[in-house]
Each structure stands twice: as structure tokens, then as C-alpha cells.
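User: My advisor, Dr. K., asked me to get a structural model of this assembly before our group meeting. I'm new to this, so sorry if the format is off. These are the inputs:
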Amino acid sequence: MDVRSQISMVFHLDKCIGCHTCSIACKNIWTDRKGAEYMWWNNVETKPGTGYPGKWENQEIYKGGWVKKGDGIELKGAGKAKGLSNIFHNPHLPSIDDYYEPFTYKYLDLVESPAGDDQPTARPISMITGEPMDIKMGPNWDDDLSGSPDYARNDPNLEKLTPAEREAMFQLERMAFFYLPRICNHCLNPGCVASCPSGAIYKRGEDGIVLIDQSVCRGWRMCVTACPYKKTYYNWSTGKSEKCILCYPRIEAGHAPACMHSCVGRIRYLGVLLYDADQIQSAASADDADVMHRQMGMILDPRDPAVIAAAKANGVADSTIDAAQRSPVYQFVKEWKLALPLHPEFRTLPMLFYVPPLLPVMASVKEVDNSAQAEKMNATAKYWPDSWLYDTTTKAMFGTIDDARFPLQYMANLFSAGDTKEVADRLKKLMAVRLHRRQVTVGDVKPETVAEALADTGLTPQTADDIYYLTSLARFDDRFVIPAAHREQAIEMMEFTGDVKGNTGFGFKSGTAQRGA
Amino acid sequence: MNANALNLFLFVGLPYVALIVCVVGVLYRYRQRGFTVTSLSSQMLERKSLFWGSVPFHIGIVVVFFGHLLTFLFPRATLAWNSAPVRLIILEVTAFTFGLTVLVGLGALMYRRFTNSRIRAVTTRMDIVLEILLLTQIVFGLWIALGYRWGSSWFAADLSPYLWSLLTLSPETGAVFALPWVIKIHIVGAFLVVLIIPFTRLAHFLVAPLHYIPRPYQQVVWNWDRRAIRDPETEWSRARPRNN
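Assistant: The format is fine. Below is the predicted structure of the whole assembly, which you can bring to the meeting.
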């Protein structure tokens, strides 16, 4: 057992309101630079939709991730043989048009145009060439299903759905969607690291953050191909690849990453997971149906004395073990089994987990009686008499998960390599928690119904309350349990403190001028 | 300036200047400006016509480069190979074909660079200098191959000893001074290419990722040896951290 620690994340999709505050926080800090304008290390997609870059999930186009070969795995579109033989021209590299051509407007024209008969306009200009351009795409062009024939219907996850299921999804009155915020998954078996011919990309041993050394990167761009999530980006101005750094300077200082700190819906959780690195290879090489289960199996119980002993023997700091025991991610992923990795079939063992969204799924497929709720609302409350809308009162809801208007198969294609049972289990748990809390706070659900729902999903009322707390009430320190980075070691990592004793603080690589000289 | 002084400058002074500037410049750039050691890829901005330029150009130039290098290193073996006319023809035709490949590729790349506005946006002055210099080299190289047969033989017989004499710091210039001006331009162009390596994107050929082949796929970097930190018996700060 080779115990290592990994900073991982949970995104609770039911809480995401699609406001893009995370994207903007990240953009303002990290990618507001020439060559990086088109990059969104954090982006929020509307699902169903084609995402960013377009159809990134379709690996027949982009050849990202790993595929099984014999007993092992190999990179689908990169690696030693394929990468080096395509080094003069990468056939699977997305072009800037697959993302979008970054643009701005000639705002000064509004002010400086001479007086005339027409209103002056601010023409869009390309931020690459500086020439006027027609804007054809932009970030989140498919937001909220706008232009759905071009976007939603081209979603690669619709592949395994029957035509009837697809049609049901796109009937206007039944239209449902949800948001999928994405950052780098900081995978355990990262394709980007494996594909880098220069050896510039590495995983930090201490916390598992995947970084690109900009001075070592030679811009071969194989990482862009190899990442199935398309979360490494090529900076066309510097000729280097860049990616989400999980705000490691903030993490080291004990702050939550900018995207998580700014999250309006408070959907994001960050904490430490301890995992068994010896299992990486076998887990990544498992059968399609097993990869997700094997990945879950790698995550170790941080309270198990054997795990703690192995962690200590491996040099994991006590403070990190303590953080792992309080980790909200461990609770969501392992204890409660509520969260799932995105596209585990790509075999990179992503360490960003998603609580699948219940709301678009549970919306009723048949009319339900809303009168119980109606009676509780007064006239000034915004009561919507449409009984096709979400209803949170009846047992009927619980039955709708299997019979949902949003096909479970679609969720399963996203989060469990097509295994609908895994998604259904988690959605039922979410529903059971809702029923339980409804019974506690409103009391219009029969206790037997709640007991049955909880028993069905293996939850106790206490666990349901814990889930409710961490989902809805959790404070900042509950959502972000960041292990101490040990600044004293971080400083010594840069300098031998003895060498610079007597100089002006840490951080000077050469001594200052001698006093009095 | 008389012709002899010019010859001395071009075939004795220039090669030494070029070599010294190249070595010092490359070392400085690699150590101090490591961020810049790369060739700015523009494939993300335009990928279709890049394929028809970059691939033939690179394959051709790798073969042509190693052809020159091997003849320089092993002149006697080259002459021995060329002693049978069939083998000489095979070698010359192969070399000429790859030379043409370079010309086609470079032409496509330059056309792309001058016509595509996105590519113009990422073009530097040194890119254009380098491309014109390389184009001159390849055009003269092909001209020499056609007009001054057989290049592989007289390169091995005359130029290889000259280059070796430069390397051993005892320049033997008689043979070079007597060469036709077409060949002289090609030789001077070669020294100029060496000279500008540290100032152009050409430096990227020095960082060809051959170390990728023996490397394990995954890389994990530890700031310290964590086991040693926790072990009270060991002294854990023996070596400078590798990322400093």
C-alpha cells in the first residue's frame, strides 16, 4: 500500500445556477493575458450541449484519454510512438475555431467617430489579428440551450439513447437542462503528463496538483490532445501549454481556489483524499464497467489505523491526515456515495467528483396533484398553478427517478460509463434526504414514506441530516478543508535558509552588496 | 578589400565567430531564458496547410542535415560508397529528392506565413530572416546538386577535410578558396545559419524530446523526500532541491 494524498473536489450540480462567477474569477486572476484570452481553465457548460471546445467528449474526433490494449492501456492519440511520429504536425489538435476566436470591440469608435447621420458602432475585432471579424462563436455560446439544434442535439452523450428518449428530452414543454462546471480534474493517471515529450508536466507528490513547468514546456501540444477533458490549453502567443493550477499559491496559503471561493451557489467542496497509488495501473486498466468502481476502491478510509500507519510511513504529514479525516470530499464520495467522477471511461482517474443533479431528472412525467402545496401558500407567495413543474410533496416523486423525463442513461453516460444503477442509487439518496427534510420541516410527508425511502437507500435519519447540513448549511470551513502546506518547508524548498542568512530576507538568489563596501 | 582577405574572413573568421556565438548563445538562452527555448507552433491558429508545409519540410531537412553531417564525419566511407556508380546515383537521387521535399515544404510554410493574417500575427522579424536564409540555402543546395556533380564525392574529398581543419584549429583553406561562387555562397549560408541559431526559433532542434523514449509515462515530483523528513534518523536536507 503506497498511501498518497490528493487534493480533490466535489461539485454539487443541484446547486449550480450557471452564473459563471467561477469562470470570471479564474479568468481575472489567471488567463487575462495575450494568448490566453480564449482559455477558460474553469468553464460552465449547459448539458445537454456540445461544451467547450465543441464536442470535447467525442474522442473519435479528439483522441483524448486512454484506451485498453491487451491487459494494459495506451494513450488514444498520443504517447511515445504516436506522439513522436506526429511531432511535426499533431493530427488531433483542436484549432482555435473549435474553442472560439477571442474578440473585443473598437469601443473608442463610439467616442471618436466624427459627427454623421448614423450612430457610430463598436465593431468586433479579433484579439489574434486585430482585424475586424464576424463573431461566430464565443464562450458559452450554448448557454441555457440557446441554439439547441446546433448544440444540445450534437451532445456526444446522447449516443446510447433511443430516438424516443432523445425526442422526449427536446420536447419544448419538457425541456430540461443542467449546468456542468468543469476545471482540471487533477487526475491520478493523467493523460497530459504521460503525453508530454518534454517532461514538463508533473503531478506534485504532496498534494496531487498537476502542473506544467513553463520553462521546460517546448510547446509540442501533445497534452492538449491527450487530455480527454480538453483542460490543457495551448497559448498561441508564448508557445507554451497552460492549465488549471488549482490556485496552488492560494492553497499553499490556506485559501480556497478562486473559482471555489467565489462560487455563488456554494456548490464546490475541496478536501484531501488518501489513496493507494499501487492500484493506479490496475484500476486504470480495468474493464469499462469496472473503472469507476476500482477508482472508488483506491480511495482509503483516513480513520483506518492501517491506512494512517501506512500514510505516516510514506511521509504524509499529520496535518494532512487530519485534513483527510475531516474532508467533505471523502464524505460525499466514499461515506455517502453521492458523488461520481466525470467520464470515468476515459481512464485518467479524475479526482473531481460530481453529485449528479436531481432536479432535471425528477421533474414529473405525468401531472401531479399540487393542491397540498397550494393550500400552504398564501396569495402573495408566487404559487405557480402548473402541475407539470417540480413538485416536492408526494411519494410519486420517488418513483419518477426511474421513469424520469431526463433519461437516466444520459446521466449515466456522463458520470458512470453508462451504468444507470450507479446514478439512480445516488439520485434516490438525494431524494430520500429531501423527503426526510420535508418531513422534518414541513411535515406533510408520511413518516412511513420517509422511513421507507431512507431504508431503501441505506441512509439513517442522522446521515440524512449530515448530508443536508453539508449540502445546504455548511460554512466556509466545512466546505474547504485545506491541509497545511507547511510554509516553512515551502521556503526551504526555494532556498537554504542558511545560505541567505544576513541577506535581505528570503528569496534573493545572490547576496546583496556588502554593507560599507 | 582584396579577395584573399574576404575569403579569409568568410571561411576562417566567420565559421569561428558563428560557432562561438552559437555555443555561448545557446547555453545562455537555455540556462537563463529557458522559457524561450521552443519553436512557436501556429498549428492551433491554422492546421490544414501547416500539414503540407511542416511535415515535408521537417522530414526533408532531417535527412538532408544528417546527410551533410555523416559525409562530414565519415568522408572515407562516403567515398567508398560512391565508388560504385549505381550507389552514387542512388545516394545523389535520394538526397536531391529530400532536398526538393524541403523546398516544397518551406515554400508552403512561407506562403502560409505571408498570406494568413493569423499567422502574420505570430510572426517575428527573425522568423522571416530565418526562412529567407533557409530558402536561399535550399535553392543553392539544389542548384549545386544539379550543376556541380557529384556533390557527395567532392564534399567528402574537399570540404570534409576543410571543416575538420577548422575544428582542429589549423585551417586548410586552399580547396575552399578555389571553389565556384555558388558553392561558396552555400557554405557561407551554412555558417550564417549556425550563427543565428541562438537568436531564432531554430534552437528548438536542440531540444528534440528524445528523453521521452526511456521515460516512464507518469511523473510525480516531490518537493522533498517525505519519508526522510519524517524519519528522525536521517538528515533530510543534503542536496539542493531540484526545482531551484
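One thing worth pointing out at the meeting: Residues 3-210 of chain B form a domain with the Fumarate Reductase Cytochrome B subunit fold (CATH 1.20.950.20).

User: Perfect, thanks a lot.
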